Amino acid sequence: MRLFLRLVLGIIGIAAWILLAGAAAPISGVRLLRARQENAGTRDVEWDSTSFIVKGQRVFGWSAEFHFWRLPVPDLWRDILQKLKAAGFNGVSCYVHWGATNPSPGRVEWEGYRDYELFIQMAQEAGLWLVVVCSRTVAGETTAGGIPGRVTNIAGFLRSNDTDFYESYQDYYRSATEIIRRYQVNEGGPERCLRHEKQHVFTFHGYR
């Protein structure tokens, strides 16, 4: 039994040493140049084979996930985020819900349980990086995967390049990305990553 415990503790120690060594590893000129080429030249958020590099500092992402719009009392969001931070996470991933924020053409709402900007501010106050998923579908057992009901009746295929589908989410994307832009790392905000699609499986015809 003692031998087994020593073996387990030894493995844990080696793993911790590897993680710490990676986090403290110097960023070589060649590696950083390659990372910047792969990252389209940005200097604020970069990455290489070891970790993310945020404003010159290595960051090992340890992110939880919280769908803020599932908890319709914004006053409770801060408590959840603080608990994530206390649990050891340094980031939180969240989806922006198209169906909830853009119920009809030309109408985009960010009030109440949809207040994404308030959620960002609370995450930053809690000391968490933000991984944003601003996609046309969130899946997650939501109705129509988060696509507004009105869009399911269009003539074209969903999640395709059909013109009527493309036009259906432009109001949502323009409004959401304006909020996202203001809170990116290069603007002093907590947003480190942005995903613009969720589990998209390409088919020739798209989805009905």
Automatic annotation (TrEMBL):
Domain of life, per lineage: Eukaryota
GO MF assignments: hydrolase activity, hydrolyzing O-glycosyl compounds
One of the protein's GO biological processes: carbohydrate metabolic process
Annotated keywords: Hydrolase
Listed InterPro entries: GH, Gly_Hdrlase_35_cat, Glycoside_Hdrlase_35
Residues in Glycoside hydrolase 35 catalytic domain copies: 51-190
Family: Belongs to the glycosyl hydrolase 35 family.
Stated name of the protein: Glycoside hydrolase superfamily
UniProt source species: Mycena pura
